[in-house]
Write a structure and sequence with these properties.
globular; single chain; binds iron/sulfur cluster; 21% strand; 3-stranded antiparallel β-sheet; 9-stranded mixed β-sheet; pyruvate-formate lyase- activating enzyme; 2 domains; alpha/beta
Length: 386
């Protein structure tokens, strides 16, 4: 609840994850629904606020960070010395486990050999890059600041550097995107073979500039069926190229799955710092204020900037767990499926329907996983869990 002071998040000696939100961007992309600002003068006070927030959260003695993730916004928009200071402060406060995965999101236009050098020295070992497309007209519609050539140069630079695991984000269902234009982006990505590729469908349920554009040009947007076709097509292309489709939106070369993101899908503890950041630890879930000024004000008064904190009921916790596990190709284990079937009969009926239609597959232990077509329709199944 707001004002709660300390977070004793983890039981003794276990690992945890930490997400840190850096909400700064040079401009706002046309599809963006994240909590971001273009006011760079707020960067320094915000870093100070993050440091202050971290001083209000004590993890139990012996807890180490298995994963640390700087998301945004664009962490690569934070001046390097300030970013180094933040990483050093957090690493001193929350010891990193040996071999911890430390990720920072970056936009292609911000990457340089100098930035890679300094970030590697600061301990970053994984980069997640917002590529989105290699088709100039699509990048323009998305109001991205980089060109296809900038994205290609950035991927080349970071993969040749060799010190980082690399994720590239691609977007599906961009206005006027076709199978042929998507093929251009996927072929280009595959010439570089990043360790990990995330595929996002353009979301139209929240307000952003492309939604206004859709009111004037509905014909430019793929229908749900066309978007589903693009998704299944990417699945075929990337799996044929040796990537594992290990989560609804994520592909990885063997051994390179995103460890931080997997924590959420397996309901493992993740602590969180920054505006709008969400944390979870067992049945406890919480979120920070999603208003930047409110966040800064709260910390200037020495108060944790919590917006809400919930303790899930056993039934809600089960529902949440099965929903997240079914996002993964490994699916939900038999014990969990049996418990949810018993607690939520309407979900059990829907799951049986999915199994009959071949949208889900059961193993001999009663565990269940969804097929790619099942993932596409998973909202119908997950609706029965809320
Ligand atoms: S770079 Fe990412 S966070 Fe920033 S405006 Fe674009 S979509 Fe939003």
């Amino acid at each position: 609840m707001p004002g709660e002071r300390h977070e004793h998040g983890s039981s003794s000696g276990r690992g945890t994850g930490l997400y840190v939100h850096l909400p700064f961007c040079a401009s706002r992309c046309s599809y963006c629904t994240f909590v971001v600002t273009t006011h760079s003068r707020l960067i320094e006070p915000y870093i100070e606020a993050l440091e202050q927030e971290s001083s209000l959260i004590d993890l139990e003695a012996g807890t180490r960070l298995d994963t640390l993730y700087f998301g945004g916004g664009t962490p690569s928009q934070v001046p390097i010395p300030l970013f180094e200071r933040l990483v050093a402060t957090l690493s001193a406060r929350y010891p990193l486990a040996s071999g911890a995965e430390v990720t920072a999101e970056a936009n292609p236009e911000d990457l340089s050999p100098h930035l890679l050098e300094r970030w590697a020295a600061a301990g970053i070992n994984r980069l997640s890059m917002g590529i989105q497309s290699f088709v100039p007209a699509e990048l323009e519609l998305l109001d991205r600041r980089h060109t296809a050539q900038t994205a290609a140069n950035a991927l080349e630079m970071v993969l040749t550097d060799g010190r980082f695991q690399v994720n590239a984000d691609l977007m599906l269902a961009i206005p006027r995107q076709t199978v042929a234009s998507l093929r251009i982006s996927v072929d280009k990505i595959l010439t570089y073979r990043p360790h990990h590729i995330s595929i996002y469908l353009l979301e139209m349920d929240k307000p952003h500039r492309l939604r206004t554009y859709a009111n004037r040009h509905p014909e430019a947007f793929p229908t749900d069926e066309q978007a589903a076709g693009l998704y299944l097509q990417v699945h075929d292309w990337l799996t044929s190229a040796g990537y594992l489709h290990y989560e609804i939106s994520n592909f990885a070369l063997p051994g390179h799955m995103a460890r931080h993101n997997i924590r959420y899908w397996r309901s493992a503890p993740v602590h969180a710092l920054g505006v709008a950041a969400h944390g979870l630890d067992g049945p406890r879930h919480w979120a920070n204020l999603d208003n930047l000024h409110g966040y800064l004000l709260s910390l200037s008064q020495g108060t944790r900037p919590l917006a809400w904190s919930n303790h899930l009921s056993p039934k809600d916790e089960l529902a949440q767990k099965v929903m997240l596990q079914l996002r993964l190709a490994e699916g939900a284990p038999g014990g969990l499926v049996a418990a949810v079937r018993q607690a939520l009969p309407t979900f059990a009926d829907k799951l049986s329907e999915f199994l009959e239609l071949g949208l889900a597959v059961a193993d001999e232990t009663g565990g269940v996983h969804l097929t790619p077509r099942g993932w596409l329709l998973s909202n119908e199944l997950f609706r029965e869990l809320v």
